[in-house]
Design a protein that fits this description.
Elements: H1 2-34, E1 37-48, E2 53-64, E3 68-73, E4 76-80, E5 84-89, E6 94-99, H2 112-120, E7 121-131, E8 134-143, E9 150-158, E10 164-171, E11 176-185, E12 204-207
Parallel strand pairs: 6-12
Antiparallel strand pairs: 1-2, 1-11, 2-3, 3-4, 4-5, 5-6, 7-8, 8-9, 9-10, 10-11
Length: about 210
């Protein structure tokens, strides 16, 4: 009898956790759908397991309308107005121009990332954590199929506004890619020209649209 009761308790707790995770993820999606423009500073940490190597980058990302974004770090600038995608490499002074719909990489702030997570991953609630003195709900998402390159995604959702301030992605090779967001501004004023790259003089331009 004790064993049966224990199993029932575990089953009930698991069901409640799954329900809570889905509800939190839904609130996150609603929050991002309501945001038109947003900017944030980020710290990206990539851990290459096979080589036992860790690389950390600082940068800034801004988005608008769910399809426009601008990402800047010490090595490159990636900009799209939703139609054209520019990638500027500072090291080799080269700019690649492509159509935006050919890019299969979604920055972690765009609205579509929550939709993708809800569609392709199972969410589980992993408890409460404090980040920068603020309460967060931690979610662990596991891929529903083996087709996903990212097998596990961990989200830290700030409780007071349902914004994601930390993301960790783990791929099939057990490498991890973490984004830590700070100075999130959802009331920023961004002109349309901000999402069009002004190519510096002397940079080589490679147009991939042809």
């Amino acid at each position: 009898m004790k064993t049966i009761i224990y199993i029932l308790v575990l089953f009930t707790a698991a069901s409640l956790s799954a329900q809570s995770a889905d509800e939190i993820l839904k609130k996150v999606e609603q929050t991002y759908l309501s945001i038109d423009r947003m900017c944030a500073d980020y710290e990206q940490t990539f851990v290459w397991t096979l080589a036992d190597e860790t690389n950390t980058f600082d940068g800034r990302i801004c988005t608008a309308g769910g399809v426009k974004f601008r990402i800047e770090n010490q090595d490159q600038i990636i900009v799209t107005n939703g139609t054209t995608l520019w990638t500027l490499n500072k090291r080799n002074q080269q700019v690649l121009i492509d159509t935006a719909d050919k890019s299969d990489k979604e920055p972690p702030f765009l609205r579509s990332f929550v939709e993708k997570y809800r569609r392709d991953y199972n969410a589980a609630y992993a408890g409460e954590e404090m980040l920068n003195g603020e309460k967060h709900d931690k979610l662990i998402l596991t891929a529903k199929t083996e087709d996903q390159f990212e097998t596990e995604i961990r989200l830290w959702v700030r409780r007071d506004d349902h914004l994601v301030t930390k993301i960790m992605q783990i791929d099939i090779n057990e490498n991890s890619n973490q984004y830590l967001m700070e100075n999130i501004n959802t009331a920023v004023d961004l002109p349309e020209s901000y999402f069009v790259l002004e190519i510096p003089e002397g940079y080589q331009v490679v147009d991939l649209r042809q």
